[in-house]
């Protein structure tokens, strides 16, 4: 029993020494098999820095392209609304013009009737301007009687007002059309710039050896293309 108790600590110490030796040997082998880190050259460092800068620029270009596309969508909606407003004004003007096909009775006017007709014209024109059916310039023409005869019958004045509304709606449609075309061109330009930057970013990452395969360049380019933007009407 005495010999057994003396030999147990010695055996335990031997096993501990053996385990420590195995661990040290494993670490030494791991150091030898690990490839040595080669410091980056100046060209490689510049390539990686350029790849990062182009990638950041591509991200900013993506945000810009999204804003331009949203602006174009809004402009297109405003263009559609302007066309509907013009179409409604055109129908109203045509309907009012039909009333002029019937001759008006010629009779002696009552005293003050011309003043009443003038007040009617001014009141109707002011109401149309408040409703944004005619412009301020058109309202000034009415009050100055430039191209407007305040002594005409209210039916004739109503038809003239409807024509003025149609002219105003047409001018608004032309303005909305120009705005929509400009927004579409800006969105198309932003999409083209984004596509170019993403292609350049993919190529830069590949050249920098950051693990981006060259085959992904097409994916970078196709994430946003000008084909997504339909041609302007």
Question: What are the SSEs and their pairings?
Answer:
Layout: H1 2-33, H2 42-99, H3 113-130, H4 136-144, H5 154-207, H6 217-222
Helix pairs in contact: 2-5, 3-4, 3-5
List the defining traits of the structure above:
mainly alpha, Helix Hairpins, 76% helix
Structure description:
The protein is mainly alpha-helical and 233 residues long. 76% of the residues lie in helices and 0% in strands. It has one domain: Orthogonal Bundle (Helix Hairpins), CATH 1.10.287. The chain has helices at residues 2-33, 42-99, 113-130, 136-144, 154-207, 217-222. The termini are far apart. The model is unreliable at 211-233 (pLDDT under 50).
Query: Rough shape?
Result: rod-shaped
CATH class: Mainly Alpha
Quote the beta fraction: under 5%
User: How far apart lie the N and C ends?
Assistant: 105 Å
Query: H/E element string?
Result: HHHHHH
What do we call the CATH topology?
A: Helix Hairpins
- Backbone structural class: mainly alpha
Rg from C-alpha positions? 41 Å
H/I helix tally? 6
- Secondary-structure arrangement, i.e. CATH architecture: Orthogonal Bundle
Number of domains: 1
User: What is the count of β-strands?
Assistant: 0
Unreliable residue stretches: 211-233
Kindly state the mean pLDDT as a whole number? 80
What is the helical fraction, as a range of percent? over 70%
What does the largest sheet look like?
none
How is this structure best summarized?
The chain is mainly alpha-helical and 233 residues long. It has helices at 2-33, 42-99, 113-130, 136-144, 154-207, 217-222.
